[in-house]
């Protein structure tokens, strides 16, 4: 924590989100732009879940793709094979991802990079299991024919504007939940654990149990967005559902935006994704990721606290002068 | 069956030798600076492409690429080090992002320069079969294994006996105390980083002479190297070597006894088991639990 | 200092990349009487499939150039976007291409990419053609705007046909667990097994780097007569190298796509001799028709190498699409959604054999010949109708 700040009131946060959310729809953005924003918001959801685990649980994960893939496969299979309604299977996908996090309980005792890599190993193991369990998952050939998002109250969630609105709402909900936990007494205990686990153990906080809950919550959110992504894209295969980029990009987005804040990961995801796809791709058709790499390097050197940290510092300097 | 298992053990040892070569550099920079260099695999990749250039364009043995690879990788490594050194806040996490970014830049630079065709040595002498009783290998693999063994011993000796090697160990165990003893920590870390780069150079050339190289390979190498480092535990050079051999043998035995589709799975399960059951790695000295 | 250098580097790169693009945009305006039509394409130009995407890209560019040289009153412009092998990015690419005015989209590589991307194109009522997605699921959707010139069945027919001609007692299939190779291996195992031949399938993780333990199983356990590979270039090199060291008692090494190409022989001369793979042209290119000769010539001129399998696939799909666009433009139906019907009426011989589209957009006539590397030449050895010479059998690279 750099400096104690007054927490953003939930209402203001929600209002800011709604205004931002309505903007592209009101301005009549093209399907192309909405499509990019949808991808960016899915990334934002995972980034939020990743940052939650980091801030409240003190755990850095390199393997959130594990939860993303489990959520996607669970929801697609429940909807496609059992015929359950998609609006039910998406949260179930999240729940199953949370359930999968139980397999990682032994890893909670590990510290720092060791925990991070243990989760990465889980992501790889899940990917291989999805490839091998071909009678259930379709193996390497993947899953294709399962339902997309439905129409609810006249709003076609499968259309670009519908999916966009849904994702904005869910990302906002995620932010509110995150902010609420952070402010609660539980959040205080959790942040204390993140700072120093030994000290909190002395004052009688059951740190392992709390960490397990945070891991499950983070997995739930990630699985939820994985499930949504599966229904929006309409095709799943192990290499895609458990791709390393679902682990890495959220970290980059969070750190880029400022992972210690609630809104940093979300802003980071949107900025990074749009920069890479619109600006960098426009400049260099092949190998445009090189610009993303340079941006990351420049960012770490120039603004180690992320975009929000940078804005704050600029604001602070101006106020001081 | 006996011949199958013998061949699996032998092949596993040979591939483990290269894993060790890649992992030694990563382990050194991790041990000395507490920095996970996510661009380490890309340093190996650059060296492998140097070998390709020397062989395909220069028409000589790829081993002649070692000086070229050392030069290029040292320059890239030094720049990388200077950038890492500028990080002031949240060093562990930010250095991850920084080195990951550099990795992306290097991978795409290789892609732009060499396109994405698969590359490997075409020298017949390196591809020829070597028979040792019931087991077989490619000549290039034997050379690479020998190289790995020699470099492991050299590194071990360097850390143990040379002034700089001892300085690296001193800085790694207590930076403040080492500074008081008159060691320049910055210069010491730079030396460790450059030695890690040199190991990556040898690894890249060795990889090119025995396996297939393409631009997307760098990241996979980094992950494999880190798994080896964690298996070994921090602070043991022969440990890294043995852990790499163990990983190679486990993978090869999985192919022989079960299915080749499960090779990666076996490696990961071994990794998790060691992580959970042996808190300080197979050969390490320090605990890794929170 | 360092920060400034980085910024300077980024700006320089940006400018260097931006300038030629702007220069190109300025040109078309000068020839006003010629109508310009944009074909969009999304290809994996970076990432693990970049090799395939770049070969496709080259074939498309040559096809467009040759088409523009002879076309009357119509000029085709190609706009290619890197889809990075990511479905969401391929969908975005389709949406961008269509909003930029592309009349049709050429699809990338991999069924998981082509599936969502062609769905998006269908929603935008835009014709979509591909040569890089072989899954049967794609044509089972019954999209009216979806077309493809190759499919799993065609590769399967070519390879299983050769095996049926050779009548070995047993076959070992080494298959990557990636989507297309896994599908092909499954189909092959079924076909070959049905012919009463013993089949053993060994699936391998694409991350594998040493094939010796696997080849040793073929050598000591399967003792098969033919080694079949359903994989990609890097796997072929690894497998044949391992086989060259272990020398299993097989009589022939057979593979799928991108193997029986002059390029593979030039790059790996010690590994390729006598190896058989799916092919469509003998080498040296004894192209009988004018089209193939022009393509080979233009390709060599542009890229300094001989045509290869993937670039030919994309050359054919692009040419067929361009011709359909020209026809639809002439009939005045290009803007009113007449392109799919015009494309469906395609019936022509191509470098890959006859091409025709059925109601699902599939090309039921797709079937490949099998070519054998012979000391730098490629001889078509199967099926008998396409053969330019007898097969060397038993014959091995070592």
From TrEMBL, chain A:
Q: Does Cell wall biogenesis/degradation show up as a keyword for this record?
A: no
Q: Which UniProt keywords apply?
A: Cell membrane, Membrane, Transmembrane, Transmembrane helix
For this protein, the parts annotated as crossing the membrane are 32-53, 60-80, 86-105, 162-181, 202-228, 290-311
Q: Which domain of life is it from?
A: Bacteria
Report the locations given in the UniProt record: Cell membrane
- Single Gene Ontology MF annotation: branched-chain amino acid transmembrane transporter activity
GO CC annotations?
plasma membrane
Q: How does it sit in the membrane?
A: Multi-pass membrane protein
Kindly report the protein's main subcellular placement as a broad class: membrane
Q: CDD domains this protein is in?
A: TM_PBP1_LivM_like
Which PANTHER family does the record associate with it? Answer: ABC TRANSPORTER ATP-BINDING PROTEIN, HIGH-AFFINITY BRANCHED-CHAIN AMINO ACID TRANSPORT SYSTEM PERMEASE
Name of the protein described by the UniProt record = High-affinity branched-chain amino acid transport system permease protein LivH
Source organism of this protein record: Methylobacterium symbioticum
Automatic annotation (TrEMBL), chain B:
User: Mind naming one GO cellular-component term on file for this protein?
Assistant: plasma membrane
Where's it mainly located?
Answer: membrane
Instruction: One Pfam family, please name it.
Output: BPD_transp_2
Q: How does it sit in the membrane?
A: Multi-pass membrane protein
Q: Where is the signal peptide?
A: none
Q: Where in the cell is it found?
A: Cell membrane
Task: Specify whether RNA-binding is a keyword of the entry.
Answer: no
Q: Which GO terms describe its molecular function?
A: transmembrane transporter activity
- Which Gene Ontology terms describe the biological processes this protein takes part in? amino acid transport
Highest taxon above the source species:
Bacteria
Q: Which residues are listed as membrane-spanning? A: 6-28, 35-52, 64-84, 96-115, 135-159, 190-210, 265-285
Q: Which UniProt keywords apply?
A: Amino-acid transport, Cell membrane, Membrane, Transmembrane, Transmembrane helix, Transport
> InterPro entries, per this entry?
ABC_transp_permease (IPR001851), BCAA_transport_permease (IPR052157)
Q: Which family does it belong to?
A: Belongs to the binding-protein-dependent transport system permease family. LivHM subfamily.
Please state what the protein is called. Answer: High-affinity branched-chain amino acid transport system permease protein LivH
Q: Which organism is it from?
A: Methylobacterium symbioticum
Q: Which gene encodes it?
A: livH_17
From TrEMBL, chain C:
Q: Which UniProt keywords apply?
A: Amino-acid transport, Signal, Transport
Q: Which Gene Ontology BP annotations are present?
A: amino acid transport
Q: Does the keyword Transport apply?
A: yes
User: Superkingdom of this entry's organism?
Assistant: Bacteria
Q: Which InterPro entries match?
A: BCAA_transport, Leu-bd, Peripla_BP_I
- Keyword Signal attached: yes
Q: Where is the signal peptide?
A: 1-23
Which residues belong to any copy of the Leucine-binding protein domain?
A: 37-364
Tell me the PANTHER family matching this sequence: ABC TRANSPORTER SUBSTRATE-BINDING PROTEIN (PTHR30483:SF37), LEUCINE-SPECIFIC-BINDING PROTEIN (PTHR30483)
Question: Which family would the database say this protein is a member of?
Answer: Belongs to the leucine-binding protein family.
Protein name, UniProt field: Leucine-, isoleucine-, valine-, threonine-, and alanine-binding protein
Species per Swiss-Prot/TrEMBL record = Methylobacterium symbioticum
């Amino acid at each position: 924590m750099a400096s104690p700040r007054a927490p953003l009131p939930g209402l203001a946060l929600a209002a800011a989100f709604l205004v931002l959310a309505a903007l592209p729809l009101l301005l009549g953005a093209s399907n192309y732009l909405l499509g990019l924003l949808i991808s960016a918001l899915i990334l934002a959801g995972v980034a939020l879940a990743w940052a939650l685990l980091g801030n409240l649980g003190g755990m850095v994960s390199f393997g959130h793709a594990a939860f993303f893939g489990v959520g996607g496969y669970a929801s697609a299979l429940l909807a496609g094979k059992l015929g359950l309604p998609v609006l039910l299977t998406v949260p179930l996908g999240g729940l199953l991802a949370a359930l999968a996090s139980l397999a990682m309980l032994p890893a909670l005792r590990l510290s720092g990079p060791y925990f991070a890599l243990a989760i990465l190993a889980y992501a790889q193991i899940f990917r291989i299991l999805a490839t091998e369990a071909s009678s259930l998952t379709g193996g390497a050939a993947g899953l294709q024919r399962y339902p997309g998002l439905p129409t609810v109250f006249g709003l076609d969630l499968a259309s670009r504007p519908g999916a966009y609105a849904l994702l904005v709402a869910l990302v906002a909900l995620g932010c509110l939940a995150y902010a609420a936990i952070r402010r609660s007494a539980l959040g205080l205990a959790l942040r204390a654990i993140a700072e120093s686990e030994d000290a909190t153990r002395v004052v009688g906080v059951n740190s392992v149990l709390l960490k397990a809950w945070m891991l499950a919550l983070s997995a739930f959110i990630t699985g939820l967005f994985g499930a949504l992504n599966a229904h929006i894209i309409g095709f799943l295969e192990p290499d895609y559902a458990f791709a390393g980029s679902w682990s890495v990009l959220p970290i980059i987005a969070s750190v880029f935006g400022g992972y210690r804040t609630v809104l940093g990961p979300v802003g980071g995801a949107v900025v990074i994704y749009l920069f890479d796809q619109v600006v960098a791709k426009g400049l260099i058709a092949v190998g445009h990721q090189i610009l993303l790499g340079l941006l990351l390097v420049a960012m770490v050197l120039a603004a180690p606290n992320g975009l929000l940290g940078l804005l704050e510092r600029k604001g602070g300097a101006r106020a001081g002068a | 069956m006996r011949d199958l298992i013998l061949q699996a053990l032998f092949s596993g040892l040979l591939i483990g030798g290269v894993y060790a070569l890649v992992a030694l550099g990563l382990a050194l920079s991790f041990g000395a600076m507490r920095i996970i260099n996510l661009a380490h695999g890309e340093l190996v990749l650059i060296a492998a492409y140097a070998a390709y250039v020397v062989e395909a364009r220069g028409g000589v043995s790829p081993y002649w690429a070692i000086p070229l690879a050392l030069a290029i990788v040292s320059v890239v490594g030094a720049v990388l080090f200077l950038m890492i050194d500028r990080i002031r806040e949240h060093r562990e996490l930010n250095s991850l992002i920084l080195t990951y970014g550099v990795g992306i830049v290097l991978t795409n630079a290789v892609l732009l320069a060499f396109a994405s065709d698969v590359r490997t040595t075409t020298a017949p002498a390196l591809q020829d079969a070597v028979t040792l009783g019931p087991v077989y290998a490619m000549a290039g693999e034997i050379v690479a294994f020998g190289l790995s063994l020699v470099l492991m011993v050299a590194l071990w000796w360097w850390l143990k006996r040379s002034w700089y090697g001892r300085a690296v160990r001193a800085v790694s165990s207590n930076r403040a105390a080492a500074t008081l003893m008159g060691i320049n920590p910055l210069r010491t870390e730079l030396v460790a980083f450059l030695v890690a780069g040199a190991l990556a150079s040898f690894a890249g050339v060795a990889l090119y002479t025995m396996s297939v190289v393409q631009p997307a390979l760098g990241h996979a190498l980094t992950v494999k190297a880190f798994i080896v480092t964690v298996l070994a535990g921090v602070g043991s050079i022969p440990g890294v070597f043995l852990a790499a051999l163990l990983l190679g043998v486990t993978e090869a035995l999985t192919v022989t006894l079960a299915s080749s589709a499960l090779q990666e799975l076996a490696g990961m399960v071994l990794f998790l088991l060691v992580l959970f059951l042996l808190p300080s790695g197979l050969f390490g000295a320090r605990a890794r639990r929170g | 200092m360092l920060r400034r250098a980085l910024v300077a580097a980024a700006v320089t790169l940006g400018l260097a990349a931006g300038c030629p693009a702007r220069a190109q945009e300025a040109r078309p305006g000068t020839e006003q009487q010629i109508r310009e039509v944009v074909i969009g394409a999304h290809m994996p130009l970076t990432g693990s499939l970049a090799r395939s995407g770049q070969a496709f890209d080259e074939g498309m560019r040559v096809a467009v150039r040759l088409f523009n040289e002879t076309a009357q009153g119509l000029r085709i412009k190609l706009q290619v976007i890197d889809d990075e092998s990511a479905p969401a990015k391929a969908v975005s690419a389709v949406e961008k291409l269509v909003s930029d005015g592309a009349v049709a989209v050429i699809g990338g590589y991999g069924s998981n990419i082509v599936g969502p991307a062609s769905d998006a194109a269908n929603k935008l009522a835009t014709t979509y053609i591909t040569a890089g997605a072989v899954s049967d699921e794609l044509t089972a959707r019954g999209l009216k705007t979806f077309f493809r010139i190759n499919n799993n069945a065609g590769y399967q027919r070519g390879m299983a046909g050769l095996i049926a001609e050779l009548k070995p007692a047993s076959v070992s299939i080494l298959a990557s667990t990636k989507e297309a190779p896994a599908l092909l291996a499954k189909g092959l195992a079924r076909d070959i097994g049905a012919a009463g031949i013993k089949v053993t399938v060994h699936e391998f993780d694409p991350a594998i780097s040493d094939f010796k333990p696997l080849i040793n199983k073929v050598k000591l356990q399967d003792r098969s007569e033919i080694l079949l590979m359903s994989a990609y270039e890097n796997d072929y090199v690894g497998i044949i190298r391992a086989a060259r060291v272990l020398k299993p008692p097989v009589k022939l090494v057979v593979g799928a796509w991108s193997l029986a190409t002059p390029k593979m022989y030039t790059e790996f001369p010690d590994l390729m001799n006598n190896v058989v793979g799916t092919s469509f042209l003998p080498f040296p290119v004894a192209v009988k028709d004018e089209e193939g000769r022009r393509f080979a010539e233009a390709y060599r001129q542009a890229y300094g190498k001989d045509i290869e399998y993937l670039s030919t696939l994309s050359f054919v799909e692009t040419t067929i699409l361009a011709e359909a666009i020209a026809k639809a433009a002439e009939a005045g139906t290009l803007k009113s959604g007449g392109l799919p019907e015009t494309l469906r009426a395609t019936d022509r011989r191509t470098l890959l054999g006859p091409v025709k589209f059925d109601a699902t957009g599939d090309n039921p006539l797709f079937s490949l010949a099998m070519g054998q590397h012979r000391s730098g030449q490629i001889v078509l050895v199967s099926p008998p109708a396409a053969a330019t010479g007898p097969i060397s059998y038993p014959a091995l690279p070592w």
